[in-house]
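[INFO] parsing input record for Cell division protein ZapE
[DEBUG] input buffer:
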Amino acid sequence: MTTVQLTDRAPQMTGAEMVAELVPPPQFENATFDTYRPDAAHPSQQEAKELLAAFSGPSAPVQKAGLFRRAKKIPAAKPGVYLDGGFGVGKTHLLAAVYHAMPARRKYFGSFIEYTALVGALGYQNTVELFRGSQLLCIDEFELDDPGDTMVMTRLLGELVGSGTKLAATSNTPPNALGEGRFAAQDFLREIQAMSDSFQTVRIDGTDYRQRAVDGTAPVLDAAGYEKAVGDAAAAGVASDDDFTALVAHLAKVHPSRYIRLINGLAVIGLRDVVQLDDQSAALRFVAFVDRAYDAQIPIRATGHALNDVFSDEMLAGGYRKKYLRAVSRLIALTTS
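[DEBUG] output buffer:
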């Protein structure tokens, strides 16, 4: 039996190791345009699929929408595409499909956090030189919350576009920003105007696919059920077993770009005595942790407070509502898997 505590882990990553991680997560390592299933009730999904297939080049196959209907070839006039939409509509799947379809010798796929962490590890100019000459940069969960990080990415992407790199990104903008998730967020408009000019914004509507097959509650286990779930996972592999409050505090000591290493090798994540979070910084770190657990498709088992109710009503009414709701959606999926 192998049980570990994540609070005992302090993963480190070199710049080279960070670069090696810039590929689609395992969940999307085989994502294609044909395996993306657009919802007929939301035509923008099919339109986005066709536009991105065209953006990725002639070698990208796209399933036609009907027997006699040709898939539209909509040329992307700009060097970048920006997927703007709600959570659970398949933006990351489409982004990974772009990565796999584009016939590029040098291409990278990472979250916004991973790219800014790389700048922190290598320095700005070294990061520019690393990516210079690459054909494609995919950026998942583009964040417009932090002015400093936004400025760094604005400069970086501007230099790369100037040298011929294509860009594809998904958005994670606070929904109460001007334009609801588009580049016209008032607080950052001047800083990101030049970068936004490089992107064609593609809006994707729809219903969170994770909520189509589950109800809206994350299961809460009693002590015996928790011990069995974690024990069974530990018997077959490695399971973590942590006090929720202690883990959340530990996340403050680990850069979010290293959370994927924090959970490396786990078959199950065990969280004891979950409580509702009332600190925004702690809540945002937990969101980043959930994102990495979801990418790795590691089930979560928990006691205490239901994880779908881990963010307070005040948080859900604030500027990070979209992030928290996405995390709730993913927590429900991970606790019911």
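[INFO] Residues 31-207 form a domain with the Rossmann fold fold (CATH 3.40.50.300).
[INFO] shutting down worker
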